[in-house]
């Protein structure tokens, strides 16, 4: 199984941590970088190959990961000379990728079964599978519904439930057909194009542990919880 890890972002939301350190290498706990945790998880799940799409401070990532042999994997690299969006880096890799593969952000901390995401993607026949997670958003204001300048409904500080993308995807190589290598391609653009074409993505619903380390509050939470969550996150690794 093959995974592509998107590790080229500047990590603007995590500054000043990411001023001199790429976001996938920010520390979690006392001994691990987030990217190390992800690579150990992928290896334990049976992934044997991984491509790292690097850009900002990519030489530091390359020096840290090397050829991946320390995790029992074969790791190669693709370098972004300019930002290409979430899916854009895959276009230049197309000929190096298998028919189906996993794509994920390099700042995800989760106990998601990556191999099962890819298996379910293959079984679904969908062009794209999106791992999703339930989030509750609290609105700190009274919400008004208006019609013709009249207030017709009012809800005091409501909570809204959403399913959000976890930044982990199963993807079929053919889904990239028709897009131009070297041009930016965002996840949002790809999903909207698939919906417009009547070829919707498949949703992989997950209710375990997940944090987006790109969010400062989640990064702080990850460090606070890692000691008690370590056996869950690194089981079998």
From TrEMBL:
It comes from the Bacteria. Residues 3-227 form the Nucleotidyl transferase domain. Gene3D superfamilies: Spore Coat Polysaccharide Biosynthesis Protein SpsA, Chain A (3.90.550.10). Pfam families: NTP_transferase. InterPro entries: Mannose-1P_guanyltransferase, NTP_transferase_dom, Nucleotide-diphossugar_trans. SUPFAM superfamilies: Nucleotide-diphospho-sugar transferases (SSF53448). This is NDP-sugar synthase.
């Amino acid at each position: 199984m093959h995974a592509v890890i998107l590790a080229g972002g500047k990590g603007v939301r995590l500054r000043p941590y990411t001023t001199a350190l790429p976001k996938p290498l920010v520390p979690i706990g006392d001994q691990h970088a987030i990217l190390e945790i992800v690579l150990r998880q992928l290896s334990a799940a049976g992934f044997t190959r991984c491509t790292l799409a690097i850009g900002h401070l990519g030489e530091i990532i390359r020096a840290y990961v090397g050829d991946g042999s320390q995790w029992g994997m074969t790791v190669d690299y693709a370098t972004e000379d300019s930002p290409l969006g979430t899916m854009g880096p895959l276009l230049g890799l197309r000929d190096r990728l298998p028919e189906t593969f996993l794509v994920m952000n390099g700042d995800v901390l989760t106990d998601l079964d990556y191999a099962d995401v890819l298996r379910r993607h293959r079984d679904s026949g969908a062009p794209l599978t999106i791992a999703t997670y339930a989030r509750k958003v609290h609105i700190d204001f009274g919400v008004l519904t208006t019609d013709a300048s009249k207030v017709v409904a009012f809800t005091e500080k409501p909570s809204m439930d959403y399913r959000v993308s976890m930044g982990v995807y199963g993807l079929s190589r053919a889904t990239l057909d028709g897009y131009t290598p070297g041009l930016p391609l965002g996840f949002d653009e790809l999903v909207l194009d698939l919906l417009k074409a009547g070829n919707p993505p498949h949703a992989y619903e997950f209710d375990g542990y997940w944090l987006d380390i790109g969010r400062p509050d989640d990064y702080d939470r990850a460090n606070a919880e890692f000691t008690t969550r370590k056996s869950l996150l690194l089981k079998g690794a």
